[in-house]
Specification:
With 231 residues, the chain is α/β, with parallel strands linked by helices. It is 44% helix and 10% strand.
Length: 231
């Protein structure tokens, strides 16, 4: 049973994650991670603590170490790493597709006076391949390219809230990974995990999600959007 703290009529804004939440998740994160690990190894960086980070943060940490040795090497490494990430993302996007309910959901919520934005660690190029007319459905989309520090750093979600003129209070962050729950917690929003990625209900509960839904569209069947929804 979901731990539901969301009270009726408390949500004015919803921030969605993209991959696994609004679109089918195709990115091969394992291969991406291995390719980046191999690249880092080729620069003779052996610090083990790098391996425990998410892949984008691995790149930042390795670039920081390289900067101490040679700024030029750090720049070359950073460009090589980004090329690997972007190729993996755009290859996945070529095979990607939106979930069947995504466009309808993004049309329905604003009609209910709920402001919506999308934040993603993916690059804008890959998002546009999967969802070319995304801005028609959601005018605020903040990709990796748009921020210095991606989620779970709160800068990412705060930029989306700023663009919407919304505040963290009254905002629900919806995503398919505990990183999305952490993002919401870091910024002070309510949080919702969805089971359309690779994570389980138990993982979301352990991460402290306020609610767990089968998919993002189910938010329309839940309070505060539907009387007598989940309770
Ligand atoms: Mg995701």
């Amino acid at each position: 049973m979901s731990k539901l703290k969301i009270k009726q009529k408390t949500i004015q804004t919803i921030i969605f994650d993209f991959d696994g939440t609004l679109a089918k998740l195709n990115i091969d994160f394992q291969k991406m991670r291995q390719d980046i690990t191999d690249l880092i190894g080729s620069y003779a960086i052996t610090e083990k603590q790098i391996q425990t980070r998410f892949v984008l943060e691995m790149i930042d940490a390795a670039a920081d170490i390289l900067t101490q040795r040679s700024k030029k090497d750090a720049e070359i490494f950073f460009n090589e790493a980004n090329a690997i990430i972007e190729k993996t993302e755009t290859d996945a996007a070529d095979k990607g597709e939106l979930f069947i309910y995504t466009k309808e959901l993004l049309k329905t919520l604003p009609a209910m006076n709920i402001a919506c934005a999308i934040i993603t660690r993916n690059c804008a190029k890959a998002v546009k391949i999967v969802f070319p007319d995304i801005l028609t459905y959601c005018p605020v989309v903040v990709c990796r390219d748009d921020v210095n520090r991606v989620k779970p750093h709160p800068e990412h979600i705060r930029l989306a809230l700023k663009k919407l003129g919304s505040s963290a209070k009254g905002t629900l962050m919806i995503g398919d990974h505990p990183i999305d729950i952490k993002t919401g917690h870091n910024a002070g929003t309510l949080t919702c995990g969805v089971l359309t990625g690779r994570c389980t209900r138990e993982e979301f509960i352990a991460a402290g999600a306020d609610i767990v839904l089968a998919n993002a569209s189910d938010i329309l069947l839940s309070p505060p959007f539907c009387e007598g929804g989940l309770s």
